[in-house]
Amino acid sequence: MPHAENGNMTQSTVNGDQPSQFIKHVASYPAVSDSIDAIEANPYGKKGLELASGVRAKVVDPVLPYAERPYGYIKPYVQRADTLADSGLGKIDARYPIVKQNTRQIKSSILDLAFMPLRMANEGKDYLMETYGKEYKKCGGDGYVAGGKAVVTTGLVVTSDGLAWLATYLNRKKKEAKDVAKQTKEQVQEKVDN
Description:
By secondary structure, the protein is mainly alpha-helical. It contains seven helices and no strands.
């Protein structure tokens, strides 16, 4: 929790209460922490934070003593909501562990995912050109006839490779389905026997 331990933004207290667990948790994410650090390091961001602190000091702080009594009525609900929000973040952490990774890793994962279609297209193009080159050499000779033969045989080779991949995939899924069916049958038989 790099930022939550020493940052200014999470240390403020309202009416003597502890800082929000939810805000501490969010600020502990490396991407959020790095973003806060970048804002604090930027002169415009720093000026914005100073303005916000000034507004708080001039507008919010003088009103807080008047809000103590009404806040006392809703304080348990606010604390419960904070606890629920924090536990929700805990579930998000467990389900999506990428949020706890450092910012560079998150950025590279997102870029890899975003550029995957281009990478796949380039790999497909390279595969086709390599296959065409091999088939062109096999057909022998230079010219339109050899090129035409190479195009046709390249289409056949690519189709054959695609069907072989599909057969492998379907066989694997068929085996998985048989295993699941067998397990289900055993569970049903076990329940019937009991």
